[in-house]
Amino acid sequence: MVLAILAVGAGTAVAQPAPGAPAGQDPTPFVGVAPFGPPKVAPVNGSTVGVAQPIIIDFPGLVDNSVAAETAIHVSSIPPVPGKFYWMTPTQLRWRPLDFWPAHTTVTVDAGGAVSSFQTGDSLIATADDTTHQLTITRNGTVEKTIPMSMGMAAGGHQTPNGTYYVQEKMPSVVMDSSTYGVPVDSTYGYKTTVELAVRFDDSGDFVHSAPWSVADQGKRDVSHGCINISPANAQWFYDNFGAGDPIVVKNSSGGTYSRHDGSNDWQL
User: Fold this and answer.
1) Which of these is catalytic: 74, 133, 225, 227?
2) What percent of the chain has pLDDT over 70?
3) Is residue 104 annotated as part of the catalytic site, yes or no?
4) pLDDT under 70 in the chain at which residues?
5) DSSP per position, 120-143
6) Catalytic-residue membership of 74
């Protein structure tokens, strides 16, 4: 057997579909002995998530055969949509549709005989355009709200990278401390502040959050250290409406494309 020690950033692999199924999906029950120990699957059974949420399968250890592991994971959805597998770490396999899930899709995951299902909610998408400094919210294809914002400033190289992200967690309050990534609090670009209504969209510490100190800049210029700053009232609306898996798309930033293989670059793979 070949040990599947996969390099971070390894390429994707698309499972062979069952007859009549779209690429990457297999609606048939898994039969046989799974080639891995009991996995942990997210989203959890019975949950409702946003349309950018990937399926995340954590194995209890390294698998002997990565192809066999993929073959033992049967993903199906109503309506059916094509998708692909990709390894985020040597013990974590993910699957996502090639495009966002349709709104109100039911998804079933059969992970070597362990079956769970989840569904998507409305297609709620936030698009942050650094040209207009506006955060545009669409729900099921219709613009629902346009929010003035301020993203990462060019000074110090803090531009918010372009990319398609999704909500990973929400916190009513969080302390943001530049020293956690090596920038002293008392340096030119250092900071330590408590931020309210924080919606995290990557693993590098970027959030959509309330920023009363930058309201005068929102809709006009970029002044943040990478986060998307919005007013307290707009932050409350965003916090109340956006949840796990809802997409946040950043475009027209001078910060390049998000390239860190850190668990939040699914839609760049």
Assistant:
1) 227
2) 87
3) no
4) 1-19, 177-191
5) E---EEEEEETTTTEEEEEETTEE
6) no
